[in-house]
């Protein structure tokens, strides 16, 4: 008895090949869509990080200029308050007045802060900006404005977009870009457009051009990248909220268009108070 041979239907092999090819194309298309989504998320995260870092620098500059420009006026007011209280106590000899005079004098000489103990080289968060600048051979130059000028802002944003560590996967290159952006942030904090232009030239001439985003293999890697980007955005959102909720951040929101003018307004108010307290002290001494 002869067993008949099984024959494949005509075109069946080609159909399977076509089906496999279709699946491969669908897989490639899905991976490409996911890759585009990752790149879009990376670009959005970098923009968000630029906004948060820009605001952080403005908060830091405002805080330092607030202390620099208004600190002497606040100190003068405290001294006048103490002198008035002491003059009143000397005249009345009242124990309650004397207690108030001691408390007012104590406010003039608070306990030394960390920055005072280390002659300004170290504050509660580590090295002061001036100290860090000296240790990294950067120019020691305090900010002159809360918000750097438009040219500095433009140069800063472009440099961060081009040199951001998240654009590469290699750990060594990420570290190099991170160190470069530290210098970029320092220059921007000082509003130093000249230094930012020099850093742009340095990047163009050797630090490294922005490479093409690394090719991804499996879609699982892309999903993991998206998850990392989402987690980082949450951390940045928390940092932004903390900045906005801070006392200095709240003051900045009072004058979002021109924060430097707010310092001048507060200074003018303080000078008026100083004048009034000086007149009050003179009156108390005259009565004595």
From TrEMBL:
Q: Which InterPro entries match?
A: J_dom_sf
Domain of life of the native organism: Bacteria
For the region Disordered, what residue ranges are annotated? Answer: 1-32
The identity of this protein, by name, is J domain-containing protein
Q: What is the lineage of its organism?
A: Bacteria, Bacillati, Actinomycetota, Actinomycetes, Kitasatosporales
């Amino acid at each position: 008895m002869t067993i008949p041979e099984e024959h494949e239907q005509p075109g069946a092999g080609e159909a399977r090949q076509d089906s496999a090819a279709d699946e491969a194309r669908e897989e490639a298309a899905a991976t490409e869509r996911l890759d585009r989504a990752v790149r879009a998320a990376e670009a959005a995260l970098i923009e968000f990080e630029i906004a948060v870092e820009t605001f952080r620098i403005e908060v830091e500059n405002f805080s330092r200029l607030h202390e620099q420009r208004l600190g002497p006026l606040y100190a003068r007011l405290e001294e006048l308050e103490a002198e008035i209280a002491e003059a009143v106590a000397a005249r009345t000899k009242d124990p309650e007045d004397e207690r108030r005079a001691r408390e007012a004098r104590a406010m003039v000489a608070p306990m030394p802060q960390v920055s005072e103990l280390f002659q300004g080289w170290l504050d509660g968060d580590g090295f002061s900006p001036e100290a860090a600048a000296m240790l990294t051979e950067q120019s020691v130059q305090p900010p002159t404005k809360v918000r750097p000028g438009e040219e500095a802002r433009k140069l800063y944003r472009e440099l961060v977009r081009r040199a951001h560590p998240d654009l590469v996967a290699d750990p060594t290159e990420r570290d190099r870009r991170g160190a470069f952006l530290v210098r970029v942030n320092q220059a921007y904090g000082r509003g130093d457009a000249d230094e930012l232009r020099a850093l742009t030239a340095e990047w163009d001439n050797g630090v490294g051009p922005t490479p093409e985003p690394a090719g991804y293999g499996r879609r699982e890697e892309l999903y993991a990248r998206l998850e990392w980007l989402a987690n980082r955005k949450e951390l940045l959102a928390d940092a932004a909220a903390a900045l906005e909720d801070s006392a200095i951040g709240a003051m900045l929101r009072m004058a979002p268009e021109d924060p430097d003018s707010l310092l001048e307004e507060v200074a003018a108010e303080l000078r008026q108070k100083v004048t009034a307290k000086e007149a009050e002290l003179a009156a108390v001494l005259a009565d004595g």
